[in-house]
Amino acid sequence: MDDGATSTRAGRPTLAAVAARAGVSPSTASLAFSGTGPVSESTRSRVLAAAAELDYAGPDPVARSLRRGRSGVVAVVTEDRLEDAFRDPMNLAVLDGIGEAFGDERLGLLVLPLVGHDRLELLDSAMDAAILLGCGTDLVATVDALRRRRVPIIGIETAPSEGVIAIDLDNRDASRRGAELLRSLGHRDAAVVALPLDSGRERRRLGPRESAGTAFVAIERLAGVRLVFPHATGIATASSSVADGVRAGRALLDVPAGDRPTAIIAQSDLLAAGVLVAADELGIAVPAQLSVVGFDGVRFDGSGVPELTTLVQPASEKGRAAGLAVLAALAGEAPRPAALTSELRTGATTGPAASRP
Amino acid sequence: MDDGATSTRAGRPTLAAVAARAGVSPSTASLAFSGTGPVSESTRSRVLAAAAELDYAGPDPVARSLRRGRSGVVAVVTEDRLEDAFRDPMNLAVLDGIGEAFGDERLGLLVLPLVGHDRLELLDSAMDAAILLGCGTDLVATVDALRRRRVPIIGIETAPSEGVIAIDLDNRDASRRGAELLRSLGHRDAAVVALPLDSGRERRRLGPRESAGTAFVAIERLAGVRLVFPHATGIATASSSVADGVRAGRALLDVPAGDRPTAIIAQSDLLAAGVLVAADELGIAVPAQLSVVGFDGVRFDGSGVPELTTLVQPASEKGRAAGLAVLAALAGEAPRPAALTSELRTGATTGPAASRP
DNA sequence: GACGGGGGTCGAATCGATTCGATCGAATCG
DNA sequence: CGATTCGATCGAATCGATTCGACCCCCGTC
Lengths: 357, 357
Fold this sequence. Notes:
The structure is a homodimer of 357-residue chains. The first copy, chain A, is an alpha/beta fold.
């Protein structure tokens, strides 16, 4: 049986061994470690001494989890490669908020990028709860798999789904407010630079209507814009990054001046920053000739990006809400969903529409 | 016993229940799921049908781990808050490299930020191996705790330590080469903008000698520079970010022209980018009046940062090497350390030393 | 027709702890 | 002084699977 592959555990002392050495029963030794229940001080120190002699690291987490029915692990499920998922500063803030909410609870974060062909098999890890972070595409399959595991599921900005505790953001309404600002400044229309719309992640023109079931956030934000500019069109990017923003910006702006939009609504600040770079390249003045609205409220301090007009979203609040929802679910309390709101911050990238030449 | 806190598991069917329903023994049902061993096609489908009827999600990962002695989880230990650790693009690339190396092995990444007062308790999670990512400060305590767990430990750019499989980078030599480029361009000295030096993370002047036992990478890179410019001094930043680079840059450059360094060696590209911003603010021309060297080889595409002269490090290679080291250790093979090298890439931010006025 | 072999199935031990109820001695109280 | 209670400890069941060896039956072979 010892094929060398089990070497991980070779020679690891067990609680029983420690108990034997200390001259107590395993149950008492367990009590001494967990701190629960009454154990005399002398016994406790005898057990700890025996543990030290054997170089015992404490109760095996796996065995403990089995017995307790808790693993102390919360999965963060994302549909991106890690590199992409965490390049988005908003996701990082969310992660941080989660950790903050956990506080003293000893919960580890298991990051599960559902990418590749055997995607769902990764969900075969021990977990006490799952947080869906950047999930839009295969939500149904993922949620089903998790539901079968009887694990609380928290969805951050996911399409509503039975049994998923929702942490929502007012994506649609916030986008509408951004668009309204532009309209009030005299803009008659706006082009959209959208977040990735489907799992394919290819860059493409936005159609007149985008089907749901793809990236929920992108769809919602687009819908908000179209409440104000019904014919708004634009480009769906391959990722939320400055580089893709530059590409989209060039595609929209590097055209005869008459065809050029007077305003661009980017669905993230990284994309907006890219659009600004593209405008700069092409000699288009912002906000004199072009207004740009972002989304997120990323801090670009010191990196030369002008202060964006953008919708500031409470990203770490999202994480905190998700973390609290996990704790509540784990405590057997009622589901604790949350709905957060974004705030329009007027920066230096929006201004009155230029009169068309 | 059912205090509501165990609700996670309430009503979850077990393999035994599935077996009973399918009219087979638990052992056979197990075989049907694991695919190991001989099971007739009819039996297998009967078991799977029973599982579907009971909405059984497959064998409990915790119980399986206990029996198998493998949890399928690899811990990534960092000494930063997640937000800070992952803001560094190099760490992201490493993470991605790890995932890439794992390939088809179903291994999840458990992210453990060792921060806060009860730091080490987080290591009480199930794990098959641990990768030390941004660890410099409390290496000894961390390594001890992991060693007691009898878990393979992979250290990425950590100070050498017994029992830690090292994935190293030529930090010292690479920095030396960067400094030599500057010397060959006529620079007589260079100021250093260093990565954080201690866990305190406060910004401060570099002393003439920095003690080891703190951030290993920063020390090594500094030592490399001092092989060429023995009296090099500068500023230790609070974090590797553009914003902190700007602050450090201002502190070094906003002085009477005679006191101003002709060259700055930043220990990361983010810091270097910040220095460039500071120089721009102060009207200092790069590279005419100031040469700047970075480290990492971050791609700033499209964000207006000029092409840095920098030491391009193979970040995802580091991750891949770490991942392979994990796999080797898990397979019971001999330790597989790695030593990677960086390459000097000459960009547009270095030039001949300006003759002092 | 007896025997060997192999595929399919099952029993039972095991992984390493936790925890409930029982036990036992000592201290408290009436 | 006997009864009661409380604190400390122990035994044994349990968590949910995996896996080794045994067993059985059917088939092919000599």
